[in-house]
Amino acid sequence: MDSESYLTTTGTSPDKDIPRTSSAVQQTLHLIQSDDPNLKIKAAGEIRRLTKTSQRYRRQFSAAVKPLVDMLSYDSFESNEAALLALLNLAVKDETNKTSIVEAGALEPIISFLQSENSNLQEHATVSLLTLSASSVNKPIISASGAIPLLVKVLGHGSPQAKVDAVMALYNLSTHPGNLSLILQAEPIPSIVNLLKTCKKSSKTAEKCSALIESFINYDEGRTALTSEEGGVLAVVEVLESGSLQSRENAVGALLTMCQSDRCKYREPILREGVIPGLLELTVQGTPKSQSKAQTLLRLLRDSPYPRSDLQPDTIENIVCNIMSQIEGEDQSGKAKKMLSEMVQVSMEQSLRHLQQRALVCTPADLPITSCTSEVPSK
């Protein structure tokens, strides 16, 4: 789930104690600062409702941040939940509120909720950290607060939704210099691999998992952890085969970094997981970066990473034939050629369909001969 689009789905029913007049904002702000816990909970519910889809209300209710943060310290699940959900909606797509929530002292209680036995409270806390960690200002503060090991724990043992939100939060935090090594110290790779095995390979979750793995592979302990985890390399290969364009780029980048770091050590573990078909497909269907990385990795995976002679040109076909013969014997070179031929055929068919679609959309009568617009007309 994207850190900027998460909004809670359950709402608060209208209540006669919550004003519905033009001065509702001011009166709700007054109620949230009252001494009556029940009125505060109802006011928090109203703030949550109004800020669910309105950026204007998020600005108008910024003054509610401090009293809502105070409610997080109450010994009441209802107060904690109401305040968390209101703060979550206040933070979505609002950088000022994100930083204000942290400055008001929300991190300590939110982090304590990560260890709650109440799964709902743990989920709310995890997604709150996901949203707050989207702020570049908050990233170092959150990591310094001790949240990273607890997020890794949630990633391993939380509910399915909490696991997804935890890996998203960890990804957000990993983009700040210095945080990556802190995350790696918490040993997240086994849990990330398990999540990668079970999630849809084309999902955002797989994209963030593969991005984290690619980052971890730059460290020797990251490479060791991935290869030591049962099915770790295979999970990356599966993303390379059927992930989104970005996930596949992350996956081939991770495998390439492994092979470049120590070809003798990692060549066989990568080959053993059947990576060749996915790499071949990437050479014709991936992003420009994926294509380049796939070709480089194919060269590293053959018996010698260097061209042998002018009689054996350094072509993808020769490289693949060499790899296949090393794996399964000389008779497999024909299989490699067939595999490559199929990939080329797929590429040609896709190009033909693309040209046909353009011909249907762009006709000389409708558009200038020199261009084909991709803009959507105003409605």
TrEMBL record:
ARM repeats: 63-105, 105-147, 146-186
Annotated U-box domain residues: 166-304
Pfam families reported for this sequence: Arm (PF00514), ARM_PUB (PF25598)
Protein name: U-box domain-containing protein
Database matches in Gene3D superfamilies: Leucine-rich Repeat Variant
Compositionally biased intervals (Polar residues): 1-13
Keywords from the named record: Repeat, Ubl conjugation pathway
UniProt xrefs under SUPFAM superfamilies: ARM repeat
InterPro entries hit by this protein: ARM-like (IPR011989), ARM-type_fold (IPR016024), ARM_PUB (IPR058678), Armadillo (IPR000225)
